[in-house]
Amino acid sequence: MTKRLAFRNARLIDPASGLDARGGLLVENGKIADVGPRLFNDADPHDPEVIDCKGLVLAPGLIDMRVFTGEPGSEHRETLASAGEAAAAGGVTTIIVMPNTDPVLDEPSLVDFIRRRAAATSKVRVLPMAALTHALEGERMTEIGLLHEAGAVAFTDGDRSIANTRVLRRALSYAATFDVLIVGHAEDPELSANTAMNEGEFATRLGIPAAPPAAETMIVERDIRLVELTGARYHFAQISCRASLEAIVAAKARGLPITCGVSAHHLSLNELDVGSYFTFRKVKPPLRSEADRAEMADGIAEGHIDVIVSSHDPQAADTKRLPFAQAAFGTVGLETLLPAALTIHHNGRANLGHILKTMTEAPARILGLDSGKLAKGTPADMVLFDPDEPFVLDPADLHSRARNTPFEGRKFQGRAKMTFVGGECVFDRAKEKKR
Amino acid sequence: MTSATAAPILSSSHLLGIEGLSAGEITGLLDLADEYVRLNRAADKKSALLRGRTLINLFFEASTRTQSSFELAGKRLGADVLNMSVKTSSVSKGETLLDTAATLNAMRPDILIVRHPDSGAAELLARKLDCSVVNAGDGSHEHPTQALLDALTIRRRGRKFEGLIVAICGDIAHSRVARSNIHLLSRMGARVRLIAPRTLLPADADRFGADIFTDMREGLKGVDIVMMLRLQLERMAGALVPSTREYFRFYGLDHEKLKLAKPSALVMHPGPMNRGVEIDSAVADDLEVSVIQEQVENGVAIRMAVLDALNRGLALEGRNAP
Question: How close, in Å, is residue B5 to chain A by CA atoms?
């Protein structure tokens, strides 16, 4: 029997088609069967299940291109199931998980394991990226063809840059054979070795070893040259400074197949937010100057930066409750991705559709997914939210197994009310108990 | 067959590569080789054509197949054959080569067969020595007798070069066999396709007049001849190709991929094969399609033809004439 679910009275925002209008949407058997401005406007749908959206935004579910979990290997930090809970609560319907696990995802069987395990345990869609080099050691390329067949959506060494340019050139060249996407982390391994924050006056005052933005930009520039040489499709996972953005804008203008992302925290925080050695704000790349933060927000507003990611990286007390220099990098972010990104909209820099595009249509296009849009026949992955609803972030409300959020006590506007994956409701804030 | 009266075939006194040969020279060598195939199948395989000539096999790289093929060719034509296997020392290779050249010159050989790991080594020796030099493979540059024996194998199977579609698959970047075959086949009017992952394609491979494919299934569609290249195992293990199993999955020739070629397609391999890496045993041993053993037989004949042709040149010059 056909399973139907109707949405009426919604503000439909579909960045892929540019739609932003009041209307309705019909789900049949997990796929969007109909959607449009006039649907269910005049007459109520005759479906057993109808959701009155009361004018709230119904948009494609978010696709987060950069999520670290602890499964396999560090399940006390995060499992695919707990990351799925956090994603659902954040309006994220697809998470792209990084290969930096234990063991590293550098074998077709491990990619297969993640897909099966996620299908069995996670509320949201989970797509793995596979390692580009064995054990992320930057020395021998992985079986890109077989890993791709096993379901790896892209290839990356996660939060490591490959130092050896000959290895990287060959890996890019080989990857181009299969037209697969390479995702790179831009941080010179030597210049950033043993550093903990952005180089500058504030790091000097704190006495913290620091890396300059150039450590990022020189890898961006290097990798652009290798893309030009090899023709590989390349995505910079996250950039954090103006010079990197300038290099990428110039590379795009030359027609190179390059895209880039930025994390929600690099859009919202700067190096001063490290405050008095707040380890939850120790991230890779480090939080930069206010000028660079503003440049990142401009990059999103102007469309030069393609994607906003959470860079969700759960850490437990054992890795964060340490002196700043010794603490692990990373923050959780799945549940603050949408609110932090919406800040740019509320600051008047971009309309809602444009912001949502960076977390729906853009990642879907870069990864070659059929989701990320409100179109007939595509998976019914959606988020319902009130973009103006004010709230204060309480870490106790988070669903992630780790609570290392950099946004404790932060005032935001807009968060997921309901989240749907394949037409199934995977999160309903009205049914949440105070945790 | 007496060389003194036979018409010349090669314009040069050396055979350093296919690149310098005309279609007429290639056809001349193939015609001559046909005669030697017949001789080699007779009970008495011996000719006295090169009696008194000295032939030196100078191999700086181990090669059982090519070396014994040249040795047999020389002996069947009645020459005195000396095999010299020289292990290249890593220090001062260039000096050693020239020193060797001077030493060899003093032995007054008539024909020198040379195999060397460095491109251009055969040409260097040709400049320094007074005898005819045959390149039996130099680095990643040329291996002319391999291309000639491949052409002979194709022609003896009744295939015409004009319009023939030949796919060369594998490590094109490092293959002298591929380079010589590209030159020969295009010169003779065949259409060459190169099939390899990008890491095994040389820069500007498309400038050689060949069509480039990175998807083997696409590249094999409708081809008449499939030439597989040997993948050297040191290129494996993550340097240029991630693993042998991945290589076999995407670039190994099995019957399933071969189905995409013409039903009459022939499979060739210069040997030695890595079974289960670039070629499935089921294909290599399938005598309906595989002409790999014929290639070996034709190798002796083509080398006899080359020695015969070079000897005609020596006779015309009157140099060391018997």
Answer: 55
- Whether the predicted pLDDT of A42 surpasses 70: no
Place of tokens 């406007």: A41
Burial B196-226 (b: 16+ CB within 10 A, else e): bbbbbbbeebeebebeebbebeebbeebbbb
How many beta-carbon pairs under 8 angstroms link A with B?
Answer: 44
Residue found by looking up tokens 């996620």 in the block: A118
The Cα–Cα gap between A115 and A122 comes to: 10
User: In this predicted model, what pLDDT tens digit does every residue of A227-237 receive, in sequence order?
Assistant: 999 999 999 99
Q: What is the rounded average pLDDT of the residues A337-349? A: 95
Residues of B with CB under 8 A from a CB of A: 197-199, 214, 237-243, 245-246, 249-250
Comparing alpha-carbon positions, the chain B residue that sits nearest to A148 is B246
Contact B214 A177 (CB under 8 A): yes
Using a CB-CB cut-off of 8 Å, the residues of chain A touching B236 are none
- Taking contacts as CB-CB distances below 8 angstroms, the residues of chain B near A170 are 199, 239-240
Whole-angstrom distance, CA of residue B253 vs CA of residue B275 = 10
Interface test with B, best of A109, A174, A227 (most B CBs within 10 A): A174
Give the minimum alpha-carbon distance from A141 to chain B in angstroms, rounded to a whole number: 5
Query: Given 3-state DSSP classes, what are the helix, strand and coil percentages for chain B, each rounded to the nearest 5?
Result: 40, 15, 40
Q: Which of A133, A140, A176 sits opposite B198 (nearest CB)?
A: A176
SS3 A80: helix
Residues in B closer than 8 angstroms to A145, CB to CB, are 242, 246, 249-250
d(CA B227, CA B149): 13
Mean pLDDT (chain A) is: 96
- CB-CB under 8 Å, B246 with A174: no
CA A79 to CA B213: how far, in whole Å? Answer: 42
Count Cβ neighbours within 10 Å for each residue of B240-264 and write b for 16 or more, e otherwise.
bbbbbebbbebbbbeeebbebbeee
CA distance B164 to B225: 8
Residues A416 and A384: beta-carbon distance below 8 Å: yes
If you search the block for the tokens 């009155």, which residue do you land on? Answer: A52
Return the DSSP state at A61.
P
Backbone angles phi, psi at A82, to 5 degrees: -70, -35
